[in-house]
Amino acid sequence: MRRLRIRRFSLPNANKYLTIVVWWLLNKKTPPGAALVRLREAAMNVSRPQILEYGQHVRAAENDAIRERIALLLPHDRVVAELVLRDGATHRQIATLLKTTPGQVSRRVRRIANRLHDPRVTALLHPDCPLEPGYRQVGVQRFLQDKSVKDLAAEHACSASEIRRRIAAINFWYRALLAARRGEPAE
Fold first, then answer.
1. Is domain 49-117 annotated with CATH 1.10.10?
2. pLDDT value at residue 168
């Protein structure tokens, strides 16, 4: 019976998943081959400053997109989002300002964050979105601003069933967009 030799290592500030992956990579038997050699060479050619620079660039672009979406929020949600993102206020500080509990602020921040990161909103705001401006407007108001169907119907001077039909069309378009990205036929 052959004993498996386990290499010991320590990763400062690493999460548990990364630690397990690195442990597996160090302890598994890797077949020697061209693929492994290419992987090692590629890893050696990328320096840490390049990785950090790319990460900062991506984060800056994401922050710009988030700030554009924050500008589209309703005023009471925009204030909370800006307090959290720009000023770095804690939930307790925001709760004191709004005269609510920190738990309510936490839930509100989570709901706002979910709406800001909704992929449907991102797709609707993309410059290449093929939908008509009226549909895009309804979609942004429903999914980002969280307006009710009744409020949207009153604002757009049409029936609630027409608003529901537009929202269903937007959802169908988005599902078809995802299916096209995966290479699947649309439903």
1. yes
2. 94
Question: Which tokens sit at 30?
Answer: 């890797």
Residues 11 and 14: their CA atoms lie apart, in Å, by 6
Task: State the Cα–Cα distance between residues 127 and 136, nearest whole angstrom.
Answer: 11
Question: What are 121-144's pLDDT values in tens digits?
Answer: 999 998 888 999 999 999 999 999
Task: Please say whether the beta carbons of 139 and 146 come within 8 A.
Answer: no
Mean pLDDT estimate for the chain: 76
The amino acid sitting at 63 is: N
Q: Phi and psi (nearest 5°) for 159?
A: -80, 160
pLDDT class of 109 with cuts at 50, 70, 90: very high
How far, in Å, CA of 21 to CA of 25, rounded? 6
CATH for 118-187, options being 1.10.10, 1.25.40, 3.30.1360, 1.10.3470 = 1.10.10
Q: Supply 8's token pair.
A: 């010991």
pLDDT exceeds cutoff 50 at 12: no
- How far, in Å, CA of 163 to CA of 149, rounded? 6
- SS3 state of residue 137: helix
Helices (H), the chain: 16-27, 34-45, 48-71, 75-85, 91-98, 102-116, 119-125, 133-143, 149-156, 160-182
